[in-house]
Design a protein that fits this description.
This protein is mainly alpha-helical and about 130 residues long. It contains 5 helices and no strands.
């Protein structure tokens, strides 16, 4: 078997994964795209292991390690996405910019400018005269 076939397939899978990470806004789809990229790496590892006829099968061992890391990444990533969805009602990455509880961000409001509080320039003038 030629090495070009799995290498081209891995390059296509990786390209689709990169496009998915850069273009998608949904966190679950981004995680799926990261999995596509990891599977492309796994395909390359196994293909080069078979092509080099390694007696230790290091490519296959690294593939098992990569699959284990990918499973842990998906578990943690989906837990974070579920918490994000429960807190905000959406899994949109662009809307998840503020850290913390969204209710606390809404509760903290600044008083109006003319409501008896000194603005920044007036406060500095008051400090300069004191």
């Amino acid at each position: 078997m030629h090495l070009a076939y799995p290498a081209v397939l891995a390059a296509l899978l990786f390209s689709v994964g990169v496009y998915g990470v850069l273009a998608r806004r949904n966190a679950v789809l981004v995680l799926m795209s990261v999995e596509l990229m990891l599977n492309a790496v796994n395909l390359n590892l196994v293909a080069f292991d078979a092509w080099l006829r390694d007696s230790l099968h290091a490519g296959q061992a690294l593939t098992l390690f990569t699959i284990t890391v990918a499973a842990a990444e998906v578990g943690l990533g989906l837990a974070i996405v579920l918490l994000l969805f429960r807190a905000r009602g959406t899994a949109d990455i662009d809307r998840a910019t503020a850290l913390g509880d969204p209710a606390e961000a809404l509760a903290v409001e600044e008083p109006p400018v003319g409501a008896g509080t000194a603005t920044g320039a007036e406060a500095l003038k008051g400090q300069a005269t004191a």
